[in-house]
Design a protein that fits this description.
This protein is mainly α. It folds into 2 domains: 94 residues, no CATH class; 183 residues, Orthogonal Bundle (Fic-like fold), CATH 1.10.3290. The chain has 11 helices and no strands. The protein is globular and about 55 Å long. The chain starts with a helix and ends in a 24-residue tail after the last helix.
Length: 279
């Protein structure tokens, strides 16, 4: 995690808020193994200290990479981390929100324009992804033919749900299940977890939740693995989809709990692998 704690502890209120958002934005890159450049960290500090605006941050990052002559895969991955971090910061600094599939799709477009050719476009092919916590197996994602209908259905069902009929903890469980289901659709070719995380933060704010930003900053990979476990069944081997791990994350995120968040405990065969190194 990038340490902006001096601003969070000692800074002015605006600096604290910006530092927390930057930590979240940068931490979310870890879901795809991406790390920001030192230049991004330096530029983020300028923004936190109110020396430059978030638009100026993005302009500086764009200019910085246009000047890079020796480009390779590592450079491109770092560029993605830097640009997406700045874009997440911009989105999370904006208090507007619309609960709709269009908002979800627009977040993906804003995050990945110029990075993925399909930014803001629903995928037109089926996918599978080998998951570490599933020992190389994949979650079953939605069929591309039904993606838009599935998105529309899930959003319509959630919009009609009456939260007044359930208590506070049940509300959090319901939101966790909705976010889990949204992620399982995997509407895009890449960038689904970061898009879902940004949307989730905006949605939780809509409900008035105060969010512990450090959770996404420090445990974004745990968040992704928890989504995987919430959407994977293998009844032959007595493995059932569970939101247990996602609720541990949400408990810390929203309720100030101190649940242990260890990726290794989500391994499908963890009981037989207790000698693994802790991650």
């Amino acid at each position: 995690m990038i340490d902006f704690d001096e601003y969070i502890i000692q800074g002015e209120p605006s600096q604290k808020e910006k530092a927390q958002i930057w930590q979240t934005a940068i931490g979310l890159q870890d879901v795809d193994g991406l790390k920001p450049s030192d230049y991004l960290i330096e530029t983020a500090r300028e923004n936190i200290e109110n020396k430059i605006t978030i638009n100026e941050v993005q302009q500086k990052i764009d200019s910085y990479y246009k000047q890079q002559s020796n480009r390779n895969i590592e450079t491109e991955r770092t560029e993605e981390a830097d640009k997406v971090s700045a874009r997440i910061t911009e989105i999370l600094s904006n208090n507007t929100f619309s609960f709709s599939p269009l908002e979800y799709i627009e977040i993906h477009r804003r995050l990945f324009t110029g990075i993925y050719k399909f930014a803001g476009k629903i995928r037109d092919y089926n996918i599978s992804k080998k998951e570490w916590v599933l020992n190389g197996k994949s979650v079953l994602y939605s069929d591309y033919v039904l993606l838009r209908q599935t998105l529309d259905y899930d959003f319509a069902q959630e919009k009609q749900f009456d939260y007044q009929q359930i208590d506070f903890l049940q509300s959090i469980q319901h939101i966790a299940k909705f976010i889990s289901g949204l992620w399982q659709i995997h509407a895009f070719g890449e960038g689904n977890t970061r898009t879902t995380a940004v949307f989730a933060i905006k949605y939780l704010r809509f409900f008035g939740f105060e969010i512990d930003n450090k959770l996404f900053a420090e445990h974004s990979w745990y968040f992704r693995n928890a989504l995987v476990r919430a959407n994977y069944n293998d009844l032959k081997n007595n493995i059932k989809a569970t939101i247990e791990y996602l609720m541990r994350f949400f408990g810390n995120l929203l309720l100030g709990k101190n649940n242990t968040l260890k990726n290794r405990e989500m391994l499908v065969d963890w009981k037989n692998e207790k000698n693994r190194n802790e991650l």
